[in-house]
Design goal:
The complex is a heterodimer of chains A (348) and B (794).
Chain A lengths: L2 H21 L3 H12 L4 H7 L6 H39 L19 H15 L3 E2 L5 E3 H4 L10 H4 L5 E3 L6 E3 L5 H9 L4 E10 L11 E11 L4 H16 L5 E8 L2 E10 L16 E10 L1 H6 L8 E8 H9 L6 H4 L2 H4 L3
Parallel strand pairs in A: 1-5
Antiparallel strand pairs in A: 2-4, 3-4, 5-6, 6-10, 7-8, 8-9, 9-10
Helix pairs in contact in A: 1-2, 1-4, 2-4, 5-11
Chain B lengths: L1 E3 H4 L9 H10 L3 E8 L3 E14 L7 E8 L2 E7 L9 E11 L2 E2 L3 E3 L2 E3 L1 E3 L28 H4 L4 E7 L10 H12 L19 E4 L5 E10 L8 H9 L7 H13 L3 E5 L7 E6 L5 E3 L5 E3 L5 E4 L4 E4 L3 E2 L12 E8 L1 H10 L5 H6 L8 H16 L2 E2 L3 E3 L8 E4 L1 H8 L5 H11 L2 E3 L5 E4 L10 H12 L20 H15 L3 E2 L5 E2 L1 H6 L9 E2 L9 E2 L4 H13 L5 E13 L2 E13 L17 H12 L5 E5 L7 E11 L2 E9 L1 H6 L7 E7 L1 H4 L19 E10 L4 H10 L5 E10 L8 E11 L7 H19 L2 E2 L1
The chains are: A alpha+beta (348), B alpha+beta (794).
Chain lengths: 348, 794
């Protein structure tokens, strides 16, 4: 065999097997071609046997040609194998026939109560505004629930609270707290300003149980006492609070009101979030929704708690959780919160 | 408080629409609950004169009435009114006229067609109570006049919510006075006719000066009771009162007008000639006007005479001295009674009246005389009679305190910048005396404003009259101070979030329980906080346990078709400790039905069992130091005696979990007989818990464990915990983790035996263990098990 014939045979083998490999359609066929081309009895092995008769110079020229041919075929074989393997995997995956639209397998997961969700929204925002969580008793003495808060005995303001009285062995007259404001007197008698607290929790009123009244409901109280705290500070903080709660565009307004423990007192309305203040059935056409009561802490309250009203001043506000939750969660009967029907609880 | 717009206009000139006025009132902090439009809600009613009356042919009480409509027109109608008479000018509504929502058509009345009707005041919607006959108009009104023009000024009734600090707004004059300050318009003060007075009034002996600081009164002799004038009747009707007769109506009228409650006694039922104001004697009996008999205490202020009591001062008169139809001499009381005293009386005897509601908030001590004069004028006009002299006993004229302040202090409270001139203007309108000549200003409120006692009150007045919008949004100020939440709060939140993650739904229940439930759940009512004035039976106590409510939540949900329930509540429970109320943060849960509720996934529709609940508890208490579970030696009565474990924190009981006792289920109307529950007090967990605490991690070995299975046979009576304790506590030179993989009791074992199989995973932090090391550890465990539990290798 001449070198020239060797070269031609190399080219011929490469053409022949490259073509066959390209047209192979199964991994088994590719393997057979690999054996036929590169195996111990394969075409390349047979061809290289001829080298032994070549001159040294021809060997030097033919050797690399054989190696190149082997490399080329190996590469083509690998590419084909990879392609066919991918194709086969793909076919295998595509044979899966699952009805993905069947219902989800239920992974147990419970829910928080809507009132907890609403309260958490509020405490989270107030916490960002620097309010510390404070607690107070629910079975409270009249001194902390009323007297210290400037709600004197034998005053209609005290009657208006529809108080539940508790029978205990305490020498003090005990009530179920009628508002979260008892935390004001509790906290201030123990701490001097500056102080900034929030007090969420249950309160009790001996009222009827109907669509809008419950003897048990939730409030959240805010209190800030420091030097030179004014109504303007209250407006700033409540504005931030309401924006946090109801959105960036929320506007608030103050209306004069009366609470025994604040002076001046203000009722706070927010521009109706449902009609942007145009007037709708939720805001009863007024464009505003009553949200909470607030004001400057009455100097008598500070005095009663041992804080000098000539040195410090403060503001306080209190807000109903149910009211907000009913409005924002479209629940029109307060009793629904205390029935705990799973189909309601499940929605939040 | 109801305010009639037209009545208000008696005291101040206003031309606002009712809606505009409502807005002004709102801006002053007077909430307008509703506006009811009043007045001439009719059309096509004209003045006609009755020219002829004849009997209806088919009726003995109906008449046929001919009317002159003016302009030569006449009309015949059927009329049944008893007061119809020739010559009267009356409102005639003809066919096509509208009365409220009704359009008049021709009516055939006992066979005679009537092409119209003569109207009464209630048919015209002018009064709400039924009138006795047709409305007779002034004879000088021209024929044909549209009756609307007579009542034409449409009226409005405002329902105002007056806060308890502003009793001075509980009258028409009071509201006018407030608007006068806002609008800077004068108040048109009433100037009732002055009577010189003939004869003396009763003497007044105030023996309880603390209860009564002023007492003004006079007698009117020779009155003859009569219906009130139409205007008074109309206005009282609008206020929601049934007009009765002048002697009764006038006192109410003056109260609504001027805010001063009055009381009229029958002079001839008063013994002697002295009114005595005194404290009641303990045990004294008194019968109220409405017939209720009271037994009085010594804190009750009474009006009386030489011999007896005649009124519960400021609250209600007595049956013995009230005005009757044939009363001829009346004594009118116009007094100032102490607010707390009146409140106490009203509450003690559960008697409330328009009068007591004003006195207990604080009336205007300066108003008694004017009110008495106004009442005199109205009484005499309606009933005739001769007024006596006025006797006014007012030993210590009342003055409000003088408030000293600077304008800067006012603006400081508000955070506002109201100009000094504006402040001066506002305060001068409100003050009795106001002096702004120095750097410190002084202000003294008139007697009707006892609520203006210090500069904070004046700051509110400044803001109200300047408009609350004068308060700006303050500049930012920082408050930097870290205070952790109370631990109980963080624990409640932690457990709530974990439970929700574990598939439980949070419930909220009303905190009240009945005595029966307390007993059913093994609580002694003596150790529970009782509510003295409970709203309903079964709501008498503050709950010492959350479980009854949660079980009722199950019953309720079952009744609504929700059967698969995992519920929890996290809140406070209440008990008495040595008589003092104690509040405990508590978390409880209940579990029944199936864990999941999609029947399609049959494998997952399993029911929870004790060990599932135990897993929940383990999950909940993961990470808390010193927590262990132990079978309850004596389970609470509401729990299954054999399926209940205690949760111990450092050996002390903090809660239980297990199956609920069938009787407890029955007590709460739960139909299901397999319900799981837990209740956990959080206080014992607080120690050693901190939300801020970071937990240090234990090292994790990089080398795989060597696994061995261990299967032993032992007596059935040996609890699993005894075996596990040996595995846990045998000292080994290598690390051990074990999992129970099988538990077998049955035929293939000798009687009384069970087999327990574990997978043991041995490991070391720094190497893969050699077989010899693993074998040695395995054997050490086995030997120890044999020794401690009598186990044999299977």
């Amino acid at each position: 065999m001449t070198l020239q014939e060797f070269k031609e045979l190399c080219a011929q083998i490469e053409r022949e097997y490259t073509g066959k490999i390209a047209s192979a359609s199964a991994l088994e066929a590719v393997e057979e071609l690999r054996v036929a081309a590169l195996g111990r009895k394969g075409a390349l092995t047979e061809l290289l046997k001829n080298l032994k008769d070549f001159s040294i110079e021809d060997k030097k020229a033919a050797g690399p040609l054989g190696n190149a041919l082997k490399a080329a075929l190996t590469r083509v074989l690998e590419e084909k194998t990879t392609a066919l393997a991918a194709q086969e995997l793909n076919e295998q995956l595509n044979r899966v026939d699952l009805d993905l639209t069947l219902p989800a397998r239920p992974v147990p997961c419970g829910k928080r109560h809507p009132l907890s969700i609403a309260q958490k929204r509020m405490t989270d925002i107030l916490s960002k505004l620097g309010f510390t969580w404070a607690e107070g008793p629910w079975v409270e003495d009249e001194k902390h629930n009323f007297d210290m808060l400037n709600i004197p005995k034998h005053h209609p303001a005290r009657d208006a609270q529809d108080t539940f009285f508790a029978q205990t062995g305490s020498p003090l007259s005990m009530v179920l707290r009628t508002h979260t404001s008892n935390v004001q007197s509790r906290f201030m008698e123990k701490h001097q300003p500056p102080l900034r607290i929030m007090a969420p929790g249950r309160v009790f009123r001996n009222d009827s149980l109907d669509a809008t009244h419950s003897p048990v409901f939730h409030q959240i109280e805010g209190l800030y006492v420091d030097k030179n705290v004014s109504m303007a500070d209250l407006k700033r903080d409540l504005s931030a609070f309401m924006k946090g709660l109801l959105g960036d565009k929320t506007e608030i307004r103050f209306r004069p009101s009366f609470f025994p423990f604040t002076e001046p007192s203000a009722e706070v309305d927010v521009k109706c979030v449902f009609c942007a203040g145009k007037g709708c059935h939720i805001c009863k056409g007024s464009g505003w929704i009553e949200m909470l009561g607030s004001g400057v802490v009455h100097p008598n309250v500070l005095k009663n708690c041992g804080i000098d009203p000539e040195k410090y001043s403060g503001y306080a506000f209190g807000m109903g959780v149910e009211r907000l939750a009913m409005m924002m969660m479209n629940i029109n009967d307060i009793r629904a919160f205390y029935e705990n029907d799973l189909r309601l609880l499940n929605q939040f | 408080m109801k305010i009639l717009y037209s009545w208000l206009k008696d005291f101040i000139d206003l031309d606002d629409t009712p809606e505009e006025l409502a807005q002004k009132l709102t801006s002053l902090g007077i909430e307008v609950a509703s506006i009811e439009k009043k007045g001439a809600d009719f059309e096509g009613v004209n003045v006609a004169q009755i020219t002829h009356i004849e009997d209806h042919p088919n009726s003995d009480h109906l008449h046929l009435v001919d009317l002159d409509l003016g302009g030569g027109k006449t009309q015949r109608v059927v009329c049944g009114a008893p007061n119809v008479a020739v010559g009267q000018k009356v409102p005639l509504a003809r066919v096509g006229a509208r009365l409220g929502k009704t359009v008049l058509g021709p009516a055939k009345i006992r066979g005679v067609v009537s092409e119209g009707m003569i109207c009464s005041s209630d048919e015209l919607g002018l009064t709400s109570t039924r009138a006795r006959g047709i409305l007779v108009l002034d004879e000088n009104i021209p024929l044909g006049t549209d009756v609307r023009t007579l009542y034409g000024k449409s009226d409005a009734l405002f329902d105002l919510e007056i806060t308890s600090n502003r009793p001075d707004l509980m009258s028409h004059l009071g509201v006018a006075r407030e608007l006068s300050a806002l609008l800077n318009k004068p108040v048109k003060w009433p100037s009732p006719k002055e009577y010189a007075g003939e004869g003396e009034s009763l003497k007044v002996d105030i023996r309880a000066p603390q209860g009564c600081q002023r007492y003004t009164g006079r007698i009117i002799r020779g009155v003859k009771n009569a219906p009130s004038p139409e205007l008074i009747q109309e206005r009282l009707s609008a206020m929601g009162l049934n007009p009765k007769n002048a002697l009764v109506d006038v006192t109410n009228y003056v109260m609504f007008e001027l805010g001063q409650p009055l009381h009229a006694f029958d002079r001839n039922e008063i013994d002697g000639d002295t009114i005595v104001v005194r404290w009641a004697e303990k045990g004294e009996k008194f019968t109220l006007l409405d017939g209720r008999e009271l037994t009085l205490d010594e804190n009750t202020l009474m009006i009386g005479d030489d011999k007896k009591a005649t009124a519960l001062a400021g609250v209600m008169g007595g049956l013995n001295s009230g005005i009757k139809d044939d009363t001829t001499d009346i004594f009118i009381e116009s007094a100032y009674f102490d607010a707390p005293t009146t409140n106490k009386t009203s509450k003690t005897y559960a008697v409330s009246s328009d009068s007591s509601q004003r006195f207990e908030r604080g009336t205007d001590i300066g108003m008694t005389e004017l009110a008495l004069k106004r009442a005199t004028e109205l009484f005499v006009a309606a009933c005739g009679g001769t007024p006596s002299k006025i006797r006014d006993v007012y030993p210590q004229p009342y003055e409000n305190p003088v408030v000293r302040f600077t304008p800067a202090q006012i603006n400081g409270i508000l955070g506002a910048d109201i100009p000094e001139d504006k402040l001066k203007d506002i305060f001068s309108r409100l003050a009795l005396k106001f002096d702004a000549s120095g750097s410190e200003w002084t202000f003294q409120a008139p007697t009707h404003r006892r609520d203006l006692n210090h500069r904070w009150d004046l700051a509110e007045e400044a803001a109200r009259f300047a408009g609350f919008d004068c308060i700006p949004v303050g500049e930012s100020r920082a408050f930097v101070q870290f205070n952790d939440n109370p631990k109980g709060v963080d624990l409640l939140e932690l457990f709530s979030e974990k439970l929700a993650g574990l598939g439980f739904y949070e419930c909220k229940n009303i905190d009240f329980l009945g005595e029966k439930e307390l007993k059913d759940f093994g609580f002694d009512p003596k150790n529970a906080v009782k509510i003295k004035n409970a709203m309903a039976k079964g709501w008498d106590y503050m709950r010492p346990t959350l479980l009854p409510a949660l079980l009722k939540n199950i019953a309720f949900n079952q009744s609504r078709g929700n059967r698969d329930l995992a519920l929890f509540e996290a809140t406070r429970t209440f008990t008495l400790i040595k008589g003092f109320p104690a509040e405990t943060y508590t978390v409880s849960g209940t579990l029944c039905g199936r864990l999941t509720h999609r029947p399609f996934f049959k494998a997952n529709g399993e029911k929870p069992d004790f060990y599932f609940l135990k897993g929940v508890m383990q999950n909940l208490l993961e990470g808390f130091e010193g927590v262990s579970f132990a079978p309850s030696a004596s389970a609470p009565v509401y729990m299954h005696p054999k399926m209940c474990m205690d949760v111990l924190v450092n050996g002390k009981k903090a809660g239980v979990f297990g199956a609920v006792h069938p009787l407890a289920l029955k007590s709460c109307d739960v139909k299901e007989n397999e319900v799981w529950a837990f209740e956990l007090a959080l206080k014992p967990l607080e120690k050693g818990f901190s939300a801020q605490q970071f937990k240090p991690a234990a090292a994790v070995t990089a080398f795989p464990p060597s696994l061995r299975d261990l299967s032993v046979m032992l007596d059935k009576t040996v609890p699993y915990a005894a075996v596990a304790d040996v595995l846990k506590n045998t000292p080994l030179p290598v690390g051990l983790h074990f999992d129970l993989i099988d538990l077998y009791e049955g035929d293939r074992l000798p009687q009384g035996k069970k087999s327990v199989t574990f997978t043991l995973a041995f490991s070391a932090p720094d190497r893969t263990l050699k077989d010899a090391e693993t074998d040695a550890a395995f054997n050490a465990l086995l030997e120890n098990l044999k020794a401690k539990t009598g186990a044999e290798l299977r």
